[in-house]
Amino acid sequence: MSLNQQQVFFNPPEKIREILIMKVTEITQNRAAKKIQAWFRSKLRREEFRRLVIREVKAIRRVQAWWKFYKAHKLIPRRVHRVQVKCAMLITRVMKGY
Q1: Is the pTM of this model over 0.85?
Q2: DSSP secondary structure string for all residues of the chain
């Protein structure tokens, strides 16, 4: 609702005042609605971001757990076996006198 020349010239001052008050009220309501919408959108974005972070943390933990399992069950036993073989060879050399 806008105030044009026709409304200004052909309406009594009370009517013009009423139109202006309605216009100001409409502008104020629009600003309030925009702020509410912006707040709600930012709230939704923050929740979405939290969900993504939680998903990422879960993925990181899954990879770390897999790596710990792999180290404990594959890498460390191989290293232990190598050390055992070296120790056995050393003992054999000492026992045989090489």
Answers
A1: no
A2: ----HHHHHHS-HHHHHHHHHHHHHHHHHHHHHHHHHHHHHHHHHHHHHHHHHHHHHHHHHHHHHHHHHHIIIIIHHHHHHHHHHHHHHHHHHHHHT-
